[in-house]
Every structure is written in C-alpha cells, then in structure tokens.
Specification:
The protein is mainly α. It has helices at about 5-25, 30-60, 75-115; strands at about 65, 70.
Amino acid sequence: MRYLSLLLLGPWLLVLAWIYWSVLKRHRVGWLLKLYDAAVIFIALGLAYGSAIIAFDDIAIQNVGDFGRESGGIWKQVMPALYGYGAFAAVMAVGIVVRWFLRRLESRFIAAKKGGEG
C-alpha cells in the first residue's frame, strides 16, 4: 500500500511531463535547453517521488475508537499524492519561469550580437 498513491499519481505526472516537453519543443534551439528541460522533468519527478514517500511515512494511522474507525484512513493515500503533485507542480512552475528568463536573456544576447556586427 506504500506505493499506491504513486501508482495512481504517476501516469498523470508523466502526461504533464510530456506536455511540458512537447509544448516547449518548438522553442528549444540548442542542446543546452534540451538538457535544461530534461533536468527540470527529472528533478520534478524525483521530488514528487520523494515527497510522496515522506508524506506516507508522516501520516499517522487513526486509532479505532468506541464507534469504529474515524474518518481519516483514506488520508494515508491522499496526502502522499497531494505532496507529490505539489512538489512536481512547484518544480515545473519554477522551471517554466526560469526558462522564460533564459529565453529573454538569449534573445537579448542575440539581438545585441547582431546589432554589433552591422
């Protein structure tokens, strides 16, 4: 049961990683941007996995009381998925913003280089 949340979350994260890779493919000019995009995807997937495992270990199991089990047993699977998705989304958001800044710097550098040649 430890990896159930990862099995449920994994396909969605792979779809989001594929979308990131596909959408930004047309803006990828050199091998450095390919390497950057691959690194963002692998870091995001790795942090999602690590966050889900940490969340699974941190969730306390509810005790059975006089009236049966308290509602909360489902959180043992929900919280790892939320932590994993949150970590993945955070890394991807930072990766997109940093890539946007890199793209702007690259276009300024290219424009300055062309302006200096003429």
